[in-house]
Design a protein that fits this description.
The protein is of the alpha+beta class. The protein contains three helices and nine strands, in the order αβαββαββββββ. Strands 2-3-4-5-8-9-7-6 form an eight-stranded mixed barrel. This is Sortase A. It is an enzyme of class 3 (hydrolase).
Length: about 210
């Protein structure tokens, strides 16, 4: 009986240690981005708009075919490729190339596929993260909020247009799009213990692009 109890206790400690390490690794990819910093961005954006240096929506379309993310050979899985910033949460998240299990244990991952692109290609960019590490506060994001992706010396600002919950097998989430779109995905319910059965989706549209 004592051996069984000891075995259960050891197993519990190992599991706790595993998830503790996983949480610690992911937390290293999250930083505080103050409202003061994002307000400075807004001042720069206002100046850029007044100087007509921001990208207009009618300039986002191009006759050149988009380079889908699976065609990139610049990055290897797990490479640091940019930063996701959610001003309303005052949080910034280091973003890595790929959305495999190992990468998502480090932080936010950029989904790589034949249906998605990097932000500069102005099609569909998908970022994923674990609900119990980097995306613990994602439920506080509302429609109309700003979401920013920094990639390749540019700052891509999106406006949240739609939030919904869906099945993990929903094939309509990760698809090619003709308009510049950012999708954030995580498991749902956000406070679920164990493997969450659904997916939480936040979809945004690009509103402007500026130099960092």
């Amino acid at each position: 009986m004592n051996k069984l109890l000891l075995t259960i206790m050891c197993a519990g400690l190992l599991i706790s240690a595993y998830y503790g390490i996983q949480w610690w690794q992911s937390s290293q990819a999250v930083e505080t981005v103050s409202l003061e910093e994002t307000r400075e961005w807004n001042l720069k954006e206002t100046e850029a708009v007044s100087n007509e240096s921001s990208v207009r929506q009618d300039e986002w379309s191009t006759d050149s075919p988009a380079i889908m993310s699976d065609e990139w050979d610049t990055y290897d899985t797990g490479d640091d490729v940019g930063r996701l910033v959610i001003p309303g949460l005052e949080k910034g998240y280091t973003t890595y190339w790929g959305a495999d299990d190992d990468t998502l244990e480090r932080g936010v991952g950029m989904y790589v596929s034949e249906w998605t692109t990097t932000p500069d290609q102005k099609r569909h960019t998908v970022l994923s993260g674990h609900r119990d590490t980097v995306f613990t506060e994602l439920g506080e994001v509302d429609e109309g909020d700003s979401i920013v992706v920094e990639f390749g010396e540019k700052r891509y600002e999106y406006k949240v247009e739609n939030i919904w919950i869906t099945d993990p097998e929903d094939q309509t989430v990760i698809v090619d799009k003709d308009t510049p779109t950012l999708t954030l995905t995580t498991c749902y319910p956000l406070d679920y213990i164990g493997n969450a059965p659904e997916r939480y989706i936040i979809q945004s549209e690009l509103v402007q692009v500026l130099d960092i």
